[in-house]
Protein 1
Amino acid sequence: MSKKVKVNIKRQDSPDSGSYWQSFELPVEDGMNVTTILLRIAATPTTVEGEKVAPVAYDACCLEEVCGACSMRINGKVRQACSALVHNLLDEQPEITLEPMTKFPRVRDLLVDRRRLFEGLKRVKAWVPVDGYGERGKPDRMSQPDQEESYPLSRCMSCGCCMEACPQYNDKDDFVGPHAISQAILFNTIPAGKPLEDERLDALAAAGGIAACGNAQNCVKVCPKDIPLTTSIAKAGRATTFHTIKRFLTR
Amino acid sequence: MSSQSATSPQAAAAISPREKYYFLARRLHSITGLMFSGFVCFHLLVNATILASGESFEFCVEKIHILEHMGLLVPVEMATIFFPIAFHALFGIVILLTSQPNMTDYAYGGNIRYTLQRWSAVVILVFLVMHIWHMHWLGKPFGGAQFDPENATSTAASAMQSWALWAPIYALGVLATAFHLANGVWTALITWGVTIGPRSQKVSGYVCAALGAFLLVAGLGAVRGFMTYQIPADGEEAAVVEQANGDDH
């Protein structure tokens, strides 16, 4: 019980100010995760040098890896703070390093603004169109194989891990992101999403769409929900190929 | 406009040229890469015939240059090799500039290949410029063009043996090309939606790796073949050429 863990945190006071490192030391508790660490630091925010500082700002919500709020770089790799257990992390290396995600604008400390993630979902119209007054009736039933293929894609929690790890997702390009491609494939597969199928493929065939993918395949490696993102990406590659040829020939 | 786009006519009107041609350019980049891959396979295999004999290589070059007598060599070369690779290289630079490699943070196989694909591209670009200057008639105004199709084997060998660094430079060029080609074919299969699931991508990965290894062996063999080729003295060579011509007629 007397075992202690040293946590190094990359901090930043405001969106425009520079970043700096601070270290904290606290006793390890049974079943402790990284969110617990941040909670304990917030209670007594004193650095290893004994300096009293402002509590570390961070995002967390569900604490069971379904909401996607607590994504951050833990020991250099992006993942959820809630499912990062301290005793597992200490098996890998003696100290824990926490940094905010780098692909989104920083708000403060470990807090980032993930707006671009949702803009990506908007670009590919990742929703079922239900606006208007008309009666749409029931959509067709999905076959069992289609259901089994689509369900994993529906587990996406918009956490941002795939974007953070993607070498093509950055400020130099307007890549829509692996998550958005996968959601476009999901909504193009489910019958209720079909009415927007062509518009989603238009979006994927536009600048920063599927063609911006560089096939590094980090997305599928870091996805905490084990979503087959690269399978969705290849499906989108095939669908946009046929879609653009069809668009060209029918124009 | 299609009926589904009724919701956003303004958005459709505001499409920029970049927006309009991005997808096409990326797919052309893929096609031109595949075209040049075909040429590289052919080129390295022809070069590897030096391992059989000097005459074999000469024979192949002679057959290729039949196109020249028909006035087709330069047009075919430009249309199927030069313009495709020029586009591939130029647009490749555009793609390279949008990349932010993170191989050290995420040292996964796919990510390492992604990064090596970009490094090898730079190596190949530099190598190609040197290679074209060194061997191709386009290098003539710049003091290069040491290869003469009329005396293919001896001029290629003397060009290779003219500087101690050509062998390592060509070996590096072949290595970068074999990797870039193999990995490029692997990603092209994904890009076009041929290999979709992880298992098919794994299998195609092994096939592409075998292709790359084969090209590497062929290419390095050719480099070794030309480095070790005994260039005949002037008189001897004339006799060889005479004999070769004699066989033909």
Protein 2
Amino acid sequence: MQKKIRRRKRKSEPELEIVDLDKMTDPVNVEDAAGSADAKNADEEKADHAAAEEGKKESKVLIEFKKVCKKYAQGEHVFYALKDADLTINEGEMVVILGPSGAGKSTLLNLLGGMDSASSGQILFDGTDLTTFTDNMLTKYRAENVGVVFQFYNLIPTLTAYENVALMKDIKSNTTDPVEALDAVGLKDHMHQFPSQMSGGEQQRVSIARAVAKNPKLLLCDEPTGALDTGTGKEVLKLLQDMSREKKRTVVMVTHNSFFADIADTVIRVKNGGIQSIVHNDSPKDASEVNW
Amino acid sequence: MLIRKMWRDLAKNKTQFISIFLMSLLGMLVFVGLDAESSGADAAVKKYYETYNLPDVWVQGAGFSDDEVRLAEKISGVKNVEKRLSLTGTAEGYDNAFLYVNFLTSNEIGSLMLYEGEPYREEEEGVWVEEWFARTNGIHVGDPFSFKIDSIRIDTVVKGIIDSCEYVYYVSESDTMYPNYQKCGLLFLSAASYPDPANIIYNQLLVDVDDSRSSKENIDTIKISLERSFDRDDIAVTDRDQNLSYATFDAEVRQHHAMGIMFAVVFLAIALLGIVTTMARVTASQRTQIGTLKALGFSKGRITLHYVSYGFLISALGCIAGTWIGYLTMPPWILGMFAGSYLIPDLKGKITRLDVIATAVAILVATLVSFLSCRKELKDPPAVTLKPPAPKKVRHSAFERSRLWLMLDFSTQWNIRDVLRNKMRSLMGILGVVGCAMLLICGFGCFDSIGGLVDKIYGELMTADNKIMLSAEADYDYAYDLCRRYQGQMIEEISVEFVSGTVKKSGSATVVDEGNYIHIQDRDLKPVHLNRNGIAMTLKMADLLGLRSGDFVKWHVVGDDKWQYSRIAQIYRDPSVQGITMTRAVYEQMEYTFIPTAVLTNRTVAKDIVDDDEVMTILNVNDMKAAFTETMEMMNAMVYVMVIGAVLLGVVVLYNLGVLSFVEKTREVATLKVLGFKSSKIRSILQKQNIWLTVIGIACGLYAGWAMLYVICTTVSDTLDMYPIISLKTYLFAVVGTFLVSVSVNFMFSGKVKTIDMVDALKGVE
């Protein structure tokens, strides 16, 4: 197993170079961070670029991290939660971010979701740099583009399953009908129950329904099976994989469980605040085949 | 959906929100209640004055000729002048009630308001009787009515039952300052009913000023012009502010207003404190939810709005309900009590613009406060808010490092830390106790102070058991005989007017003959002897005139044209009568004749002397005491409001606090239980902290209560020189009462320690 990973890692080296090459388009992007037409141009350019350079992947780049740092100052001591992270996530991919506790994977997820701001570097989403966003723009970004599934579900306890999903209508116009969204996760019959009346797996499925009801470009999952038993966890995992495969959504999942690497299109390993490796998986396993 | 969330959150934290609701309701209820009452009373009386044309200026003198009236009418700004003869007398029957008798001319100024019978006509014979006096004595239109002025008896028939806007409040000359309208009546007759109509001498002029010229400055100018135009020394020109009826009611209304504001501030401050702590707790406990909402893409503004609407909704409901209930209940209640003291038609509450503004401001402040308290949770990015809050920075205080700390037992250490680390919560607890103790002290202190006042007036300053009031018939010899017979002391009590610079005040002068029934006390309430070489003035009067001991004051006896210019030889304090006191020798030195108006004695007085024409009435000290206390009813109403407020305040705040600290301590208590502490031990630990805070709160509350009482006593009125007295009983009651409220509320909560499920309580947080 260990050997395999190492080999794969070496294989992925060229991809990292591509990332570097992409930086060439930087000036264009930075200047027109807000102009969407230009951003689109840049996107196309970039896509062309990527296609020309690599040739094997047709999909478009959704997110790109460039030398992203997140640091916390505790008195005189400066602590890097993330240091010089470079990575690319393509549209429609299922990405698993792996790493032990404290490695920086949650920081990575928070930055992806616009829930925190980077200390330095660039985070390009559809070609726009998130690091230049104000609080309000980040809020809009989260509302429009990101769906989040939390480890502890984070449902509003005083709202029913239906209401938790319907809450999304308050912030976005073209949402999926809550009943439909709950039906998709198999909870149509339980939709008038409060979170406290549901099992963990059910709550997590409500949480997924809530996240996907927004039709987000990016679905972020923070240890979505962390509080669930294996059986229920598998169901949740299957659901997420379907979102990626059938609905062509970009799903990014953070976990410390290395078995999940098998179901991902791309596996990003994080250690000590840095990206350790980025590996593509040409034939990901089905979620139902994974065991842990 | 967020609105549904709000309703369910409100339901979940109902005790907290109900207490906020109650506090804002009570605050607005008292404020609007008293304001609507005082504004309504003010509006009613203003309308009354306007409709019946209350005189703007009164001129009193020995007699006025028609030429003088014409002269006065020519003064610029004067619209109309009317003559009147104003006397006092006694009724035949009706317990020899004291009467104010007015012989009128045209009655265009200060017109009578008719309840029953015929309206007043200038040439019509008969008497028009004041309504309250008529009602309580069963006098009806058409009844014969007889009364005596000096020795002249007048027999007449009741033509009408009326009220006069000049007399919304009056007391008999012998009475204290509190009215008894059954024993003191008001009569109006036309000059035609005067025994000798051809030779009637009018002693009063009523002056009506043009409406456009009725400002204070104009009135002052007109007063000076009037004084100049008459060019005699025996007249007194007074305006409305110097009119007893007008000024008394005006002061009463203003006092209620001030009280209303004071209460509202206390209650609303507590309500706001409640909102701060409750909203801070609600937002803190929903930290993860806030983080989630933010992560989902809700904007800061939306989330802020959501949480601010809690505070807004609750305070709006509370304030509006309070305003409404206050308006509906308080004015009828208090104005109902007014009815016995003030004779004003159509007294009813009135909502003013101030009430609306105050309600809006209270809601606004409550909303602002909830905005400020939830802002804390909203400032960080969602990634931070999603995580549990960073533990408080715990620093050891100097005390915790000292050697003494180590000698304390665990519960003391735990409680000290808990208090120091939850300063806001502890402060609120202390404030609740302070408010409770303060209002109790102040409320019962009012009773004490009035009681003290009565004991002082009729126990220290006037030590006679009986006061024989003499009529104008009594000459010196009669009084002297009476005095010899009962081993009494003669005194003369007269109305005087003081002038110092531009200030003019009415007061009374007491002239005392040899005897031992009248005593005076100095500034510090120590008994002193009356100065035998000059006049002594009361502290309150001296303050009003801006004078000190050694200064000169110009004064004259009302109805006498001789002005005196005297040096104030002494300052003394008197709670109820403001003016001057002097010995008979000093009085006679000023070339006045000493004509006693009362004889004081400790001997039992034969009842039948009342039948003498010279004797008006005999006042027993106990009757005087009872009358004085009874008529302080308004004060009693205030006291009830305060005591009820105190208990409510204590319970609501302490209950709120109890919920708050109990919820916050649930995990700690569960941990202690897991470690093996018995429930009873934990309860005693919790109660210990509560007792500390209560003791501190009571200590501060006692002082605050004294201060509040002091303010009330010193602002109560122009004629009352009250000082705060707080009896031991009151202290005891306040301390024990507050302590009981606090400890029992806490006991109720600490009882829940048993119900805490260790496993459940410790799970919860991730």
Protein 3
Amino acid sequence: MLSIRNLGVRIDGKPILQGINLEVAAGEVHAIMGPNGSGKSTLAQTLAGHPDYLVSQGQVLYQGQDLLSLNVEQRAAAGIFLAFQYPVEIPGVSNIQFLKSALNCLRKQRGETELDALDFLADVKQKMRQMQMDETLLYRGTNEGFSGGEKKSNEILQLLVLQPQLAILDETDSGLDIDALKRVAAGVNAFRSPERALILVTHYQRLLQYLVPDRVHVLQDGRIIRSGGAELALELEQQGYAPDTPKDSEDAPNQAPEVSDDDG
Amino acid sequence: MTMAKRFCELQAHAPPYSSGWPWLNAFRQQAQQAFAALELPTQQQETWKYTDIRTLSETAFSDAPPPGATELAQASSAQQTQALNLPHHRLTFIDGHFQPHLSQLGALSNGIKLMPLRQALEQEQVLIENHLGSAVEYPGQPFAALNSARLTDGVLLYLPTDCQLSQPIHCLFYTPSGRHSHISYPRLLIVLGPGARAQLVEEYLGSSAPPANAAAQCTCPLSEIILAPDARLLHCKVLRESPQGHHIAGIHVTQAAQSQFHSINVTLGGGICRNDLQVSLCANGAQSRLDGLYMLAGRQHLDNHLRIDHLQPGCRSEVLYKGIIDDRARGVFNGMAIVHPGAQQSDARQINKNLLLSESAEIDTKPELQIDADDVKCSHGATVGQLDNDALFYLGSRGMDQQTARALLTTAFAHETLTHLPQGPLREQLTALTGATLTRQAGGEPPDALPHG
């Protein structure tokens, strides 16, 4: 579904990602872990299409098409969703208005008709119950004055309503207490299906107890230095992202610098 | 030739409407003298620093004649298709001339008086003598003096004690476009007795598609609002003139104890526009909420000058003005709250927020406080910014195209000023009207047409 090849990204001229390679197949869950400043959020924002992140090298194929040639809303229409680490507060745009505008824009881009207002509301409310969210949040400004947990739950509500193909969750677990974490994880698990894929960007192993990944990757200094199965997350939890992490581990992916950007 | 000189010359000829009522003649004459003694404002004066009215004072405006068939047809069509749809009580004017056939003055109970001012000058002389001019002082207000000197028609609204009107009164002033430059001086006198409640809308509407050679027009209205103890007025002004429609207006308010004045001042179109809104909080417990929203585009110029005098203790004023300025348009905001000596426990707040959507758009904002009492709560602030890129990215990441995202954000910014309006047709229509204007500015299609019954 997603194929990242030798991706390099700069912000304000400074290299942040330096040759990322990652393959994500439909149905898979990948966790990207790593210390602060390793480039995890940059990867997430770049995939979503943030204009400040300049791709300096490499290629990203999503469902066979060149993802980097699409702007942010085209990527959303193609089925990519980023759950923000810091969801933006938008006073004056109610949550329900936000969801409705987003869904109708997505449907329009896909050549589908607008959803019936009543059906839409019923669907949103059902998903809010699933997330154990207070319905009054629908009529407040989007994320305006929401608690940390409410903001993260709201991101997952959007995920459930907008039904993307590839969801990237950027530190969705940060700042959540254990109950909120379980609710968020349950929401994400409800999203999972053999046709969909998930990339979890996280600092801690905690979330991965509830959302078990197929693959775990360790990002450091803009490169994936290790990859492994779900057990790698546990190991990292016990040992930290210590500098003695073996750089030539058997689990390390083939960093294949020969993959060039004229490929395909 | 300045407008002042020209005006004095015009006075040498017979005035357009002469009254057999000596009081009124004296009232006009006194105002004329006051006007003649005042120079027309220039940018040398602090209160007119950012507003250049030379193009106005150099235009040979003549008093607008009564409308012909063409103007009537224009106005009738505009009333049906463009104007707010508040049909319960409506007074429609064309170039300042009252149009009974376009108006709706249903039966009103309990001694309510709602009529064209011209009729009131004949029939309600005691009321007029007691109130006309009582909320206005001419020094520093040449256009208020000019309006008084030239006043011929407008609106009288009088509500006796404890009388309540549930439906808004709609005063529609239509400015037709044409090849000659005309000026009109509508006057509104609004008097609410103790405990009375009303809503009044002043809408100034110009041609939506003026011809390329349309001449400049000018409207110079003055509203006097006098609120008795515990009276409550919602006053809404909507300015939608064509780019050739200039507008120099005053709204002067005096408030007695426990009275509440809520003003919502919406500007969507016009040429050179100026609003002087002056509120005197004259007795304990009087409250004013002044909300404003302006969306300027093209080469429009809007100057909102607010002055709130806290004359007695325990009064409250709250100002929220927000503007969205595009193209080469320019906005000016000046809000002055004065807490007079002895006006303890005054609560005065002012906020002016602006969004600039283009490099050439401009805002000059200056909220001011002058405090001569020590036990007060006062605050003021102003912001100028662009649309939040993080928010635009967030909306984009959910599939919204740039036009939709921009329209959504600007609309959300703007509509904060409408949140204090009571639910009802006025709020709904202002929301739809401003939303459609913003969506159009953002380059998209308006979501829904303005509902018309």
Protein 4
Amino acid sequence: MSGFFNSSIGRKIAMALSAFFLMFFLLQHFAINILSVFNPDLFNEVSHFMGTNPMVQFALQPVLIFGVVFHFVMGFILELRNKKAVGVKYYKNNGAANSSWMSRNMIYSGVVILAFIVLHFIDFWFPEINTKFIKGDWSGMHEGIEGYRYFHELQVKFVSPIRVAAYVLAFVFLGLHLLHGFTSAFQSMGSTAGRKKTLQAIGKTYSVVVPLGFILIALYHHFTYHH
Amino acid sequence: MSGKGMNLTLKIWRQNSSEKKGRMVDYKVSDISEHMSFLEMMDVLNEQLIATGEEPVAFDHDCREGICGMCSMYINGEAHGPDRGITTCQLHMRMFNDGDTITIEPWRASAFPVIKDLVVDRTSFERIQQAGGFIAVNTSGNTQDANAIPISKHAADEAMDAATCIGCGACVATCKNSSAMLFVGAKISQYALLPQGQVEAPDRVKNMVAQMDLEGFGNCTNTGACEIECPKGISLDNIARMNRELIKSNFIK
């Protein structure tokens, strides 16, 4: 079995499995975030549940972190191995003649997403960990804020136009990454379904709607927050 | 025809041997007929070089009718040049215009080292084939008639499509990862689809993939470039089938 996951195809499959997991997570993250636009109270309730539920915190969260780290580390390993396999570069190479820009630049869109995740962790995850695990405050309350603090914290984060711009840019690259990655993951798993019209349509829809939705949520909070 | 042909500038990779450093060298050819094949144009250049006492450009070629897979040239940034479903010998000069500059390079991949100029060593493909690209049949006179085994038309067609792979290496040459998975996928598929091949299918896929990795080919990232540049139109579905076969051989057997 270790031989399988050390083979070129086994690595592809591991990459695809972690991709499926991350795409599922992204959808769940999006579903919760969109609540902040339509129902701040419900958004607060769900955020408090996700932030304090032991199953989410101690089972799902570590799996997610592993999934993210694995996908990045394996992505870099494969990229380095592929660079080695290529050896001497072409004097002239016309990649656009036979493949999409997205498919040829997964490592670059991936690096942008990695940079975004670092920013996103600094913005939200580290403060959460600090509040809950360092300070030991699991109440979800904050002085001077009525009800739970989550919606307020979200709105404050998107006051800065620079941060909003960084998020928008990152989501554009996420969309580009998904435009190739969604269907590519099926192919790696040995399914030709990703090459058929139905899944290509679902993949395109997912890759456009989810990142665009995140962009609109960020813009919505940027323009509606009045202090 | 004389005086009406194309005048071209060729930028060609020249490298004396695998140990020596290579470089792009410019050549001029004139009065090239649009009806010529690309290899005939190369012949004209080489005649010219021989006449002036220069070393002719070494390039692989054999059948010149698109079935041997030898004519490995990376022309203007594409395997076998700008046309589709062809090898270099089937590429016509009418695809180019008078005054064009054409770059001609060898296949690039660590597993395809340059022997000289445009000639690369593709024996890595042969070692992959030897690792399992065959069926073991007792041919002592008791061989069963192949037609006695029922095979669905669909499976037979797909196996035949996979078997049209000529092992030219355009898939590797065009792949941004120098992956050989279209080639290996085709070779695995042509047997995996037929009852005679299914007997040894689990070992075949394991051994051929192991050899492919050992040769230093890259990992497929499903860009699909190989399928577009393949002179025989081998489908990317064959890579998916190979992946399925490997999963089956590890988890189901």
